[in-house]
UniProtKB/TrEMBL annotation:
UniProt xrefs under InterPro entries: DIOX_N, IPNS-like_FE2OG_OXY, IPNS-like_sf, Oxoglu/Fe-dep_dioxygenase_dom, Plant_2OG-oxidoreductases
Similarity-based family: Belongs to the iron/ascorbate-dependent oxidoreductase family.
Molecular functions per Gene Ontology: dioxygenase activity; metal ion binding
Record field: transmembrane: none
Any one GO biological process: defense response to oomycetes
Species annotation: Brassica carinata
Keyword Oxidoreductase: yes
Pfam families: 2OG-FeII_Oxy (PF03171), DIOX_N (PF14226)
Protein name per UniProt: Fe2OG dioxygenase domain-containing protein
Length: 351
């Protein structure tokens, strides 16, 4: 018997009952994850070991940050200080969340991008034309006590484990922000000081197995709107990063995080560290879970290029006007992913 897919809110509840991708997920031929565009075994993104960051070789590691941020905008980190157990518990509870019955999951469903806790599907069901093979739970998590009571209460350990994970990843982010700030030649607390009260959001991305993975994306090419993203992924590949005209596949390494620059870093650094296109592809036999932490300014923070990185005489004028993160964030969600870059609308026009 063919079950109806049209009444389903989430792709998880469609995936298991179809042997073809429904037409709303099928992309035009020119816009598919063409395997010949992808470098699967070649270049990879840098791996930075944070073990010695507070030792005598700090300068060397800061140099590695400068290289990774300016050449790739993406890197992996090991010896990052987030306990293995915390990571494992987070991944397990995320999987348990998405394996709950549909009736339990849909309680959290909302298409309203302004909601601080919500389960949704694809990217932005309100603005996009083609759907993506992804469900996601989005959470705000700073300060935790303002949001924890909105988070799912099932699985029963969800709130406790997620709070522990968010706290631990935040401590790591603060270390990364100092290193990135120094690598730009700025005081180590400068980047952190531009973020107002700071913001931290998380997504739990769930990509079910897909019967025709070459017709659709988990997430199409996009740039993250926030400052930096710290991504945890399970052992299934899917992430690809755009570099020198090619997509590079980033294969998971256990107990590492992937860090990437977002639009706010590009603005603050006045284009020294660019926000970079990346995407997620799906596959036909394994579900995939990824858990990005999006670190960002608080909504009231005013963001703009840092004075030291602007030099009118040497031909590096300010490229962006200042704005509040609230203004940026609203624009980001208002436009469909991957069409037009949000950051361009904040550029100072040359006269
Ligand atoms: C994102 C993202 C990549 C992945 O959620 O913004 O880029 O591998 N995710 O899931
Ligand atoms: Ni992203």
């Amino acid at each position: 018997m063919q079950t109806s897919t049209t009444s389903k809110l989430l792709v998880s509840d469609i995936a298991s009952s179809v042997d073809r991708v429904p037409s709303s997920y099928i992309r035009q031929i020119s816009d598919r994850p063409n395997i010949s565009d992808v470098d699967i075994f070649g270049d990879s993104i840098p791996l930075i070991d944070l073990q010695e960051l507070y030792g005598p070789s700090r300068a060397n590691i800061i140099h590695q940050f400068a290289h990774a941020c300016s050449s790739y905008s993406f890197f992996q980190i090991k010896n990052h200080g987030v306990p293995e157990k915390t990571i494992e518990r987070m991944m397990t509870v995320a999987r348990e969340f998405f394996h709950q019955p549909e009736s339990e999951r849909v309680k959290h469903y909302s298409a309203d991008t302004k909601k601080t806790t919500r389960l949704s599907t694809s990217f932005n069901v309100g603005s996009e034309k083609v759907s993506n093979w992804r469900d996601f739970l989005r959470l705000h998590c700073l300060p935790i006590e303002d949001f924890i009571n909105e988070w799912p209460s099932h699985p029963v350990s969800f709130r406790e484990i997620t709070a522990e994970y968010a706290t631990s990843v935040r401590a790591l982010v603060l270390i990364l922000l100092e290193a990135i700030s120094e690598s730009l030649g700025l005081e180590k607390d400068r980047v952190s000081n531009t973020l107002g009260k700071h913001g931290q959001h998380m997504a739990l991305n769930y990509y079910p197995p897909c019967p025709q993975p070459d017709l659709t994306f988990g997430l199409p090419g996009h740039k993250d709107p926030n400052l930096i993203t710290v991504l945890l992924q399970d052992e299934v590949s899917g992430l690809q990063v755009f570099k020198d005209g090619k997509w590079i596949a980033v294969h998971p390494i256990p107990n590492t995080f992937i860090v990437n620059m977002g639009d706010q870093m590009q603005v603050i650094s006045n284009d020294k560290y660019k926000s970079v296109l990346h995407r997620a592809v799906v596959n036909s036999d394994k579900e995939r879970i990824s858990i990005p932490t999006f670190y960002c300014p608080s909504f009231d923070a005013v963001v703009g290029p840092q004075q030291e990185l602007i030099n009118e005489e040497e031909d590096s004028p300010a490229i962006y006007r200042s704005f509040t993160y609230a203004e940026y964030y609203e624009k980001f969600w208002d436009r469909a992913l991957a069409t037009e870059s949000c950051i361009d609308t904040f550029k100072i026009s040359k006269t």
